[in-house]
What does this fold into?
Amino acid sequence: MKKTNPSPPKFFLRFFRWFCHPEMKNYIEGDLMELYDDRLKELGKRKAYRRFIMDVLWLIRPGIVRPIDELNQLNDYNMFRNYIKIGIRNILKYQVFSFINITGLGVGMACCILITLYVEDELSYDRYHKNLNGIYRVLHVHNHSETIVDVWGNAPVGPALLADFPEIQSVFQFTSPPTLLFEYGDKRFQENNMVFADSTAFEIFSWKLVAGDSKNALKSPNSIVLTQTSARKYFGEDDPIGELLNVDQEVTFLVTGVMEDVPSNSHFSFDGLISMTTYRDWQQEIFDNWGYVDFYTYFLIDDHAAIEALEGKIPDFINRHLPDWDYTIAFEPLTDAYLHSEAGRQPGITGSLSNVYIFSSIAIFVLLIACINFINLSTARSIERAKEVGIRKVSGAQQYSLIYQFLSESILVSLLAGLLAIVLIVVVLPMVQELSGKSLPYNLLLSWRLTPLIMGGVVLIGVLAGSYPAWILARYRPAQVLKGVIKSTSGRFNVRKGLVVFQFSLSMILIVGTTVVFSQMKYLRTHGLGFNQEQMLIVDFGWDNRVQQHIESIKAVYHNHPSVHSVAASRAVPGNFLPNAYTGIESQKEEMIFNAPAIYEIDADFISNYEIEIRAGRAFSKDFPADSTQSLLLNEAAVRLYGYVNPEEIIGKNFSQWGRKGTVIGVVKDFNYKSLHIKVEPLTLRMADERGFRNLSMRVKSDNLLATIAELERLWEQLVPQRPFLYSFLDDTFDSQYQADIRFGRIFGVFAGLAIFIACLGLFGLTTYSTGQRRKEIGIRKVLGASLTSIVALLSKDFIKLFLLAMLIAVPVSWYAMDHWLDNFAYKVGIGIEIFVVAGLVSIVTALATVSWQSIKAALGNPVNALKNE
Amino acid sequence: MKKYQLGEFEEVVMLTVGVLYNEAYGVSIKKEIETRLSRKVSVGALQSALKRLESKGYLKSREGESTQERAGRPKRYFTITAYGKNALEYTRSTRNELWDAIPKVALGLKIVG
It folds into this structure.
């Protein structure tokens, strides 16, 4: 009789149905409804509603709410043991595939970890300084015809900054290393890496002083703080504090401290610190000269100061001190010094941020290829497990527990791969150290950060790589599978094909990359430098004045030696560092333009010794005694710098440089006095005065180099007994500029090889699998009379198509990437077609070899074996 | 000596189940307790207690009929098991022992009998 009752709040009812345990849902809901009904009659709709809502809310209790995981704890553990057991059995049963999977993943992981170590090291430069975030350095910006930014610069800027900027706590300056001959007892070494430094060194930087007082060690002139290695070199295990070192046979330095060696991850390093006051005694004038260079200025700001505030004050600062110059300064944080600095004249070798990116990408690529292999192989082989999946499902396994099972299997494989990776790393680490030039100690692997990261990464890879095959497997419908009908849908096949294409394009990109890198390296080594560097023996005698005084007679003695073709003396030789000189040259409008080109200080024989070409005018000559003070040579780049188009026109123009005035007498053809990384920069050449010589360059023509060197050394010992015979060959030292690039090339090549290896592993696995699938088909074809070649062709056809597709992708990508990399070099090879052809051929040949091995094996098999079981 | 864990509310619920004998289900238990003891009982607390008692083995349940008022949902009837009976008796006797052990002075009672 009653009409349909109004129903309880729908939302809360639904909510209740959602959270309630399914076992209890029905009757509790019944209770709720009954109560609602009663209240409706007694209390009216609103109260009934409200009470219903209260009831539902108070039903949210642990006993009533449904459990989140539906499996019983006890059951879980047992099933897990079963999964592991089955997983291990599977691994052992299909040994070839397991081997391929584990090796591929293991190699990929090892690569990744090694590159991580490398990248971490690169990123860790200078991080050991406590004051890291407050340390900045001064960049000197010269705005002449082009803007030149250098790290090194003048001395007065340091004290001026300290005085003018209250936010600056302290300033530290040091110089580029002079060459000094150190003697202690019978130990005599030419030191090339001792710098002059302010006493604030230990205030700003966190270098540890092992002995001596950090505040006072570098206060008085002629004091020196040695690194532990240097100390050991001269003093063995004895305490060097208080001892005296003889320097350049004229001065003595007092050892006032010993410090720990500068850590390898510092953007500059040195073997010892000499007190700046010493330098001040020697060359007072440069400390007030804003036009001089040779100083690196670093400073520390207060904690609460912001560098932007200081930067804002720079224009005033410049106005106050140097209003008329085209010069200003900029501040660069220490954190940018190693990887992000683009300034020239760095105190040490800078790392390359692009290298870091490139290697990180390679690591990810290689790992990606390995994971793709894994996915490919697993999905391909999933058909073998189909029956097992069917039975499990029939026995009541739910889809997600199957996924769980297959994921555990892939995690297991991943863990094994991880173990393999660690073994590989331990074995390969020494080679990597040599390859990369870094010391990567084993204990880096055990660091707190890295180990859990590696473990996590391994498991993650297992999960990621295993999820797609697991999903595919878990979806098998038991009815179909147990009947024996298994479709390998072409949809699935396309994913696999896509993965193969991807792998091969990656590998080809890496091959192209390696080829380009190597050919660029070769080009650099063989490119004409504009001078002759063959068999050029360089003898470095520091600034020894006795040698300098007798330089001409020494040269004459050597010239007389039958194996020596020509001799010259100079301050620097190609490949060395050389200074810049503030130079003024008369322009076409007859006013003096000032710039700061590089400067070579040479003698009259230098140009002919190095076979440098003269473009206009003449070289220095002994026939013109005025050359030694009134003549200047320029190179073509310098000619352009001063605004002249035709080199002939600059001949005879006036110049003013470093205290000399005179005319330009000649122009030399541009020659690469620095590495081919940079275009030839403007250069001036002048005849050095007596104190300007440091190096002898001798062109040697000899069949027996070793004997000749020995003879030349004996001559030296007679002529210059007080100095060691420090010789080197120019082509070697010049090449060492490319060390970093050669290293890069090697590392790149190694990784390209690895990527190919892994890709081929994958291809091998896939081929093995697909030929296995098609055994029956091959058997029938053979019976019908197919020849070996036609069967092999049939099996390879699919892969060739994929291959060509991969090439189509790889070519433009690698071209673009390599073009970008080559921009690092002023002189570069072209990326010709032949590189791509080579890369393509290499990849095709390896792929074919892999594919055909399996195909031939299958094609040679006895068809009876394949068809027996029909 | 067996130990029977029986909370106060659980004991009340069990006793009410006994009172209602074959008619004890969620709503009826709730109404009975509210009437007899004049205390509010929430559905959630009651259901939790019933579930706990069942899992301890003191109560057993059976499916009942569904009615129109319950929107077609069935009832769940509870009855006391033998084990549950032991638990109740144990609780009762231990309470009584405690009562008897109280010295007359503490409660200021006149001695009865």
About this structure: The interface with chain A takes residues 25-27, 30, 42-45, 47-48, 51-52, 66-67, 69-71, 73-76 of chain B (CB under 8 Å). The first strand of chain B starts at residue 59 and ends at 66. Chain B has a mean pLDDT of 85.
